[in-house]
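Re: that chain you flagged

S.,

Sorry for the slow reply, it's been a week of failed gels. I finally had a moment to sit down with the sequence you sent. For the record, here it is as I used it:
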Amino acid sequence: MALIVAAIGPVAGCAAGQRPAMTLDAAREARSSYRLQLDDPDRRLAWRDAMIGAATAPTDASFDLLALSGGGADGAYGAGVLVGWGQSGDRPVFEVVTGVSTGALMAPFAFIGAEGDAELQAAFVDGRSSGLLRNRGVMAFYGPGLFDQRPIRNLVEQSTSPSVVEAVARAHRQGRRLYVATTSLDSQSQTVWDMGALAASDLPDRRARFVDILIASSCIPGVFPPVALPLDDAGRVTELHADGRTTHNFFVAPEEALLETDLFGDAPGHVWIVINGRPEGRYITTAPSGLSVAARGLDAMMKASTRLNLIAARQ
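Prediction finished late last night. Pasting the structure tokens below so you have them in one place:
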């Protein structure tokens, strides 16, 4: 491990030098119409009001929140659940949908309802999402990720058509909410994006920003290159963002709001959580190689985090 760090350290230093330095104050001062800045009390109150609005104006007499977790290749499980649920006729219209990592890629389709099922099945169930790991060869040592980002970008751009973005915007205008979480590598914290507000905005590049956030949420640090996301509408301030699962495998509410006792008001309803993968450990004989040990260790950490998230969601 020391040899690897020594080998890539100079490269990482060169890569870091290509980004202009930014302070925490500059990041906090950047204002966005679709990035939730919940460390600001006024923005936190506005977010809470939006959630209560969604909770008290259900489209089918029941407030339903859907949280879709990360899970990598196990995302086909969640997609299959949603498609089968829709075919059964019992799937509700979700007033709030949240997505992390693989769950972020599915979230827009779950949010727009039945019209998104065909694309959801094509992208995740029928095999279009296979073959996303394209090795960059020796170039992997000279960049921010071992694998090429283009396959996953092509998948997201193909799936997230202008009509999908417009459908998200329509649902947002009805009072429903779609949130996606990424991890800021600069602040080492979860960032939550109001995807409906972005889709319904007047920003000329709203679809490109929409796609970039979905890609960022699913890019495992070091495996896929992170994505530079603008923190303000003008695009003058950016941060590097990566897999939302790095900080939380799923979320019912952003961590700044978890202590709210009346988060959704008095509206009755349901919180549905779809875990892509198994939250409990699975016993196998681990190969004594660096990659196997690292993969098993990371997987154990993610499973433990998922179990803690589930406990917190029940409180």
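What I noticed first: The radius of gyration is 19 Å.

Talk soon,
D.
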